[in-house]
Design the sequence.
């Protein structure tokens, strides 16, 4: 797709540069347009929840930001720098692998199905990238990892392989593993959806602690409306590849303006 | 002549033949594994030329007879100035043939690792090479071990063909002994049992052990 890139700044400057900016971002699979001219800013330190019906493009938003998907139009900026593009002779061109590797360092992601490395213990999962990507010594990486595993309440499971851990424990390891890279932005894609109800709290408690004590920027896709309401600075309701409505949790849950938002919320409230 | 007398007389030659067969098997296996990994990875390359070369190799070696390949390597290559000793020609032919089958096992093993593993490794900003070597390969290896066990038994059986270019392996010795004694049941019966024992009591237990060892290492025990 040839798009006039001169409409996009080479970098974002000024006083209130957002940590993440989606600018006119389009994503399609063949003829299916999954995200249509998306504009979304996430401020530094902000926790934004993404809700919406299945297939509305929530996961795709996170995957594009994690560079797991390429985009078909627009630009994503992270910390003021273009992520999906890079500057070449004064214009933005699609990012090279090298540029992506530099930019990805700022972003971490947790997945619905954990995706822990099964051939490594909990602590080895956490140490892997610090050692083999950041080049930390094993000792440093281990210390950093143990600290994080302790923070997520797994100090007694550090030497267990994922197959020996419950879903809730695995997801907490996955959070520690992502944090070990010290990202500025954390992405959570339905991290509690694959969990038994009684262990969901273990994981939400960890996220709650991150919100309270760490200055991370977070983007969280969730089906848990109660948790989203409690913890978010802002909630975005996605519908058909667009942000149908967004606002503070009180506004969006308490007084939704759009009919689709009202329908969606009353449907999920009824379901439980 | 009783079978004991038969063995007393020809046993040492069966042993010699068995040793050659074992050597052919090990060398061919090493070559096959090497080729399988190289060709299997090339098959997955984003570069169409690299992929094409591997595909052609695999097609040729899987689509034609091992015996014909053996004769090509031993009798035809010298016409192009590449002369291999018969022992070398033997295991090279077997290794190249089974390597082509192994390449598909390698590819299948890598594809069997869930996508989420690649994605998690990418999300941790690991380089493509590190993702492959540190995350995907160890898991792929475990997944592909059982079919490799079968392939190695095929490979052992395939080495019998090297007797046709006069490598003095087990089959060659059996034929030689048969042609002087005409005791066919003893000659080929003994060979049959030895091949079976090598497959069932050497290769199979070794592969089982390797699977257990790897599973433990990968924390799946
Ligand atoms: N690799 C792909 N190829 C084709 N279509 C895809 C692909 N990935 C996603 N889609 C489509 O894109 C749309 C948005 O998918 P996405 O996974 O972002 O939805 P979601 O909002 O996360 O849904 P859910 O709540 O079910 O997780 C869906 O229609 C989906 O079928
Ligand atoms: Mg989703």
Sequence:
């Amino acid at each position: 797709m040839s798009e006039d890139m001169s409409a996009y700044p080479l970098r974002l400057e000024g006083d209130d540069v957002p940590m993440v900016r989606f600018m006119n971002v389009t994503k399609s699979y063949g003829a299916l347009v999954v995200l249509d001219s998306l504009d979304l800013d996430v401020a530094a330190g902000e926790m934004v929840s993404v809700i919406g019906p299945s297939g509305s493009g929530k996961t795709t938003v996170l995957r594009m930001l994690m560079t797991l998907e390429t985009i078909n139009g627009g630009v994503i900026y992270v910390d003021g720098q273009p992520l999906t593009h890079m500057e070449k002779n004064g214009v933005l061109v699609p990012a090279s692998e090298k540029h992506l590797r530099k930019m990805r360092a700022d972003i971490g992601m947790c997945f619905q199905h954990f995706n822990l490395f099964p051939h490594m213990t909990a602590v080895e999962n956490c140490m892997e990238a610090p050692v083999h990507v950041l080049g930390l010594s094993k000792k440093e990486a281990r210390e950093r990892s143990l600290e994080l595993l302790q923070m997520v309440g797994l100090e007694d499971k550090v030497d267990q392989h994922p197959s020996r851990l419950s879903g809730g424990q695995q997801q907490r390891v996955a959070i520690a593993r992502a944090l070990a890279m010290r990202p500025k932005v954390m992405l959570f894609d339905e991290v509690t959806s694959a969990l038994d109800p009684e262990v969901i709290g273990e994981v939400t408690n960890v996220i709650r602690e991150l919100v309270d004590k760490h200055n991370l920027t977070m983007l969280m896709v969730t089906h848990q409306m109660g948790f989203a309401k409690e913890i978010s600075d802002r909630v975005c309701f996605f519908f058909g590849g667009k942000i149908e409505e967004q606002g503070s949790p009180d506004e969006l849950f308490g007084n939704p303006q759009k009919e689709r938002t009202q329908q969606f919320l009353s449907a999920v409230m009824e379901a439980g | 002549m009783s079978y004991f007398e038969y063995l007393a007389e020809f046993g040492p030659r069966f042993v010699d033949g068995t040793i050659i067969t074992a050597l052919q098997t090990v060398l061919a296996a090493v070559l096959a594994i090497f080729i399988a990994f190289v060709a299997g990875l090339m098959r997955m390359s984003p570069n169409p030329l690299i992929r094409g070369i591997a595909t052609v190799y695999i097609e040729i070696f899987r689509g034609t007879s091992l015996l014909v390949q053996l004769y090509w390597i031993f009798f035809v290559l010298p016409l192009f100035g590449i002369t291999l000793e018969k022992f070398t020609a033997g295991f090279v032919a077997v290794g190249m043939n089974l390597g082509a089958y192994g390449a598909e096992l390698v590819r299948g093993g890598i594809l069997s690792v869930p996508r989420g593993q690649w994605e998690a490794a990418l999300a941790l900003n690991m380089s493509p090479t590190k993702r492959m070597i540190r995350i995907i390969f160890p898991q792929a290896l475990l997944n592909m071990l059982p079919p490799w066990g079968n392939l190695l038994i095929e490979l052992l059986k395939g080495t019998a063909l090297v007797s046709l270019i006069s490598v003095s392996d087990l089959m060659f010795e059996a034929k030689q002994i048969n042609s002087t004694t005409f005791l066919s049941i003893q000659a080929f019966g003994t060979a049959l049992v030895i091949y079976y024992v090598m497959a069932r009591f050497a290769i199979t237990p070794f592969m089982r052990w390797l699977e257990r060892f790897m599973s433990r290492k990968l924390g799946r025990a």
Summary: The helical segments of chain B are 3-43, 48-63, 66-76, 86-111, 115-123, 128-158, 170-181, 184-217. The first helix of chain B runs from residue 3 to 43. Residues 3-217 of chain B form a domain with the MetI-like fold fold (CATH 1.10.3720.10).
